[in-house]
From TrEMBL:
<dbReference type="InterPro" id="IPR053137">
    <property type="entry name" value="NLR-like"/>
</dbReference>
<protein>
    <recommendedName>
        <fullName>NB-ARC domain-containing protein</fullName>
    </recommendedName>
</protein>
<dbReference type="InterPro" id="IPR027417">
    <property type="entry name" value="P-loop_NTPase"/>
</dbReference>
Length: 239
């Protein structure tokens, strides 16, 4: 799983550089990347990462393009606008999620999602997606919902994971908290609570997915999801 800051072009290109270093740490012999000077042209690094993601058998990955709030569209005269399409992988494999506060982003399938305030609604999402009975009265389920702060996408991701495993809710909560702590050290640029909550649930699921054929609905292979945020509301969209 790779997280890229799509706030502007410079930030996105720097994120590709960080992603390349992480890929090489985990896959030292990675094709296309091992021969690229990571301190050289960021344009070459971007193309190398995109090429690695497009390798025929490299299908188990998720790339998150976060904070795409200033898209290059007709009428937007800001010189800092970003055309994100040229930074997307060219193959139809793996999964892509884009987060944005802009209603003018039209890439992919838009899924509006708002932060939930009602505990019962949160527990219902967790119960429905995990297909586990008795969660409405389970104190560990309540603790997990509180940790996920009413974010529907995070709840659905956690539920999809729990459907596939025998892990208890208490154990999942421990894994989530461990992932959160690692994330603070590994990606301090993820400053908002919402970003870290979503990334932590995705991280747990993708660690499991890399060991199995786990494919919850949030991770449609070869599709792009766009998550839209607006103020305190949280939205999600997929390509």
């Amino acid at each position: 799983m790779l997280w890229l800051n799509a706030k502007d072009e410079d930030s996105l290109r720097q994120s590709f550089g960080n992603a390349a270093r992480r890929i090489l740490q985990e896959h030292p012999s990675a094709q296309r990347l091992s021969s690229v000077d990571l301190k050289g042209s960021l344009g070459e690094v971007v193309e190398a990462v995109k090429g690695w993601l497009s390798l025929p058998k490299n299908t188990r990955w998720l790339v998150v393009y976060d904070n795409y709030d200033n898209p290059k569209v007709a009428g937007n005269t800001d010189v800092a606008t970003l055309e994100i399409r040229k930074y997307l992988p060219e193959s139809h494999q793996g999964s892509v999620i884009i987060t944005t506060r802009s209603s003018r982003v039209t890439i992919g399938h838009r899924i509006p999602v708002r932060k939930l305030e009602n505990m019962q609604d949160c527990l219902e999402i967790l119960s429905d997606t995990s297909r586990r009975e008795g969660l409405m009265r389970d104190p560990d389920a309540v603790k997990l919902v509180n940790e996920l702060d009413g974010l529907p996408l995070a709840l659905a991701t956690a539920g999809a994971y729990l459907e596939q495993v025998t892990t208890s809710l208490a154990e999942y909560l421990r894994l989530y908290q461990e992932s959160w702590l690692k994330l603070q050290k590994r990606s301090p640029e993820l400053s908002s609570y919402e970003d870290r909550t979503l990334y932590s649930t995705w991280d747990i699921s993708f660690m499991f997915k890399n060991r199995t054929d786990f494919r919850p609905s949030s991770y449609n292979c070869g599709r792009t999801s766009t998550i839209r945020t607006s103020g305190s509301n949280f939205f999600a969209m997929a390509i």
